[in-house]
Amino acid sequence: MTPEPDSPEVLLDTGDTLREARDWPGAEAAYRAYLAARPLHWQIHVQLGHAVKEQGRSEEALDHYRHAATLAPDALDPVFQEGELLRRLGRGQEAADAMARARAIAPDSPLLRRLDALLRHRVAEAAAPEAMPLPPEGAPTQIAFDVTDLLDYLRDARTPTGIQRVQMGLVGGMLEHPAPPAPLLLVAYDPSAWRWWQVDIARFRGVLELSRIGAAADDPAWRAATAALCHADAAEDAPLLPGATLASLGNAWGIEDYWRGLRMLRRRVPLRYAAFLHDCVPLAMPEHCLELTSRLYARWFAALALHADLLLANSRATAGDVQAFGAPLGLRMAPTVIPLAAEPPPPREAALAAAETLDLDEADAPFVLFVATLESRKNHLMVFQAWIELLRRLPADQVPRLVCVGRPGWRAEGALGLLERSALLRRKVQVLSGVSDLALAGLTARCLFTVYNSFHEGWGLPVSESLAAGKLCVVPAHSGLLESGAPGAVFFPPGDLPALVETLARLATDAAHRALLESAIDRAAATREWPVAAAEALSRLAAPQPAPPPRPPFPAGERLSLAAAPPPPSLAGAWGEAVREGLGWWWQEGWGCWTRDGIATLLLPLDVPEGTPVRVLLELRGPPGGIALRLRARGGESTPWRRLDLAEEARPGVVLQAEAGPGGVLVELDSGDGVPLNDRAQRRVGVGVVAVMACAEDDLAARLAALEAAEG
After folding, report:
1. Does domain 560-711 have CATH number 3.10.430?
2. pLDDT at 3 (0 to 100)
3. Of 11, 101, 487, 557, which has the highest C-beta tally within 10 A?
4. Topology at the third CATH level for domain 348-527
5. Spatial CA neighbour of 234 closest among 83, 111, 77
6. Backbone phi, then psi, for 101, in 5-degree steps?
7. CB-based contacts of 663: which residues, under 8 Å, 6+ apart?
């Protein structure tokens, strides 16, 4: 018998379907109608809370979670959801209370790990400020690979692009090492809970294998595998040991408050930090990057001078860029170069069969392959212009098709717009995305040759893969392409359209010339299996290390803005981020940084003898509605709190005095329960900090310069 359209069963199914589709108003309406008939169903009160929360009505969502808790006093989920939402709103004390109630219900639940930091956040440390503990010298006790950014990528996509391919190849190769020189583990950072957690290696291997053989991100097997892999709440804390090396082989620059998370980890577990640099494109060519990308990368790069103990790079070109951009920052380390890998092609028949499943126009026609994200840096526009010139110069049947494999990216409008406007070009160019590695190998096996026309590359993995498959690759002669293309690429002068057209025309029409150049490809040199590159990187990471290189000294007397520093990278910007200590901070913004409720801490590691009188100048900002603030500076001994009433949008300069402790000076700002901030995140904030300066009390020149900078 078919249920009535307005029956509770149908209403519940409708609500669940709309929730899965993220139609939150629709889900809310269906759940409300269901609860009118079944008001005691506490789980649906929780779902209703989710629906209104996603529409920005946080207080109403809290009411629904709390009502669900009254209906099911022994259920963990309503109390957990209440505490999680309170934590996101910055209401630390209320969230801590909810956490305590949740622990009483389910003391061993892994869900509660993400709330552990709340109790620590509400109180100040009683100890004196201390310098960051140094890891012991010698070989690492463990080698941990931070795969945070890779998991973030795999949550939304299945076909990896350049940096993800490199990271998956290197990490996967290291995990397959028959006798690793130190225990290996995978970790990830959850910035919403300030927690480093252990990633399951078996599940990671399974996801890597699935990524190689398929491209459909909605495949149930793929979704189940990635959901299990990325479930931080169900995972244990990362079992890192003192003396470990933590290596980031991907894009850590895009992770929220990454360096602060690393500093908090290093205070508990003295370890070394190693970073792999794939390129310096956001610094060398910011015009080909999103403004946000350039800004985040510049901040991350500057902070390497304060946090990194070891650097790796994929080419001599990248290593040179790192040293050139890092020299003004005091980044003294020369990166170790780990040339990238190009796996031998998979079995030809399997690859060709995978390629047959692609929807190719004129499937039997000869074609040239261009593998790259469609973005301005890859310069598809110039290649499309070259194809138009070929069509004007040669009979159409002598011009091969151009197959571009890659997703549309930033500023692809120029190339895609030309393709849309030119009927001539559309007859010869096809864009494919979501192509699996296996199918891509099949396309490479079938193509005449490949082209890769980037403005700047750290390496250029598609070049290596083309040459390893015995296919010529046409590339501009610059940056890392000179290294990836060394085994036999066909180079042309960068930006020279006539030279590119001449090169393409001869390769397309002169089969004997093409065969001669192909015969000269050093496929052995182009082929470098990931386990080989991984073993080389692992050997460098596992080598006994001396004491970490000296960090650039804290800039005494210099005004340090706590704002999100714009490019170019600067040491002052790095220190402005690094002085924020602990959990009491929101993210950096264009003007400075809001504190959270409770106590926020600034650690100013002045290099002065213990007991030296020190002066600190703070530039503050009053939050909405104003705030009653307690603040103090202290070194070895605790000092009395100073009280300050701060009006909304007030911008005072406040002077604090203290005696330096063994690690410098600690500044504490206690904003109590904070105040609501009417922004999209619906945060609860304390006082805002615009800038800070610290110097010895008798450094009159520094004090005067800081005051002038504040007034300016």
Report:
1. no
2. 63
3. 11
4. Rossmann fold (3.40.50)
5. 111
6. -65, -40
7. 128, 129, 130, 131, 603, 605
Rg (C-alpha) for the chain, rounded Å, is 29
At the second CATH level, the architecture of 8-121 is Alpha Horseshoe (1.25)
CA distance 673 to 651: 21
Domain boundaries, the chain: 8-121, 143-337, 348-527, 560-711
Q: Which two tokens stand for residue 107?
A: 């003391």
**Complete DSSP assignment for 334-374:** PPEE----BPPPPPHHHHHHHHHTS--TTTTS-EEEEES-B
Helical H runs in 176-273?
201-213, 220-229, 258-268
Which residue is listed with tokens 């030296």?
612
Q: Is the peptide bond before 135 cis (omega within 30 degrees of 0)?
A: no
Using N-to-C axis directions, what is the helix angle for 497-509 and 511-519, rounded to 10°? 100
Q: What is the dihedral of CA 51, 54, 56, 61, to 10 degrees?
A: 40
Q: Which pair of structure tokens corresponds to residue 653?
A: 């300069």
Cβ partners under 8 Å of residue 70, min gap 6: none
Per-run averaged pLDDT (10 residues), the chain, 712 residues: 74 91 92 94 94 90 95 92 79 76 82 56 54 85 97 87 91 94 96 89 94 80 92 89 96 92 92 97 94 93 95 97 96 92 91 94 95 96 98 96 93 93 95 93 98 97 96 98 98 98 98 98 94 96 84 94 93 96 91 92 94 96 96 87 96 95 93 87 91 93 69 58
143-337, which class in CATH?
alpha beta
- Cβ distance 231 to 223 under 8 Å? no
Q: In what order do the strands lie in the sheet with 627-634?
A: 580-581, 599-604, 665-670, 627-634, 642-646
Same fold, 143-337 and 560-711: no
Q: Whole-model pTM?
A: 0.84
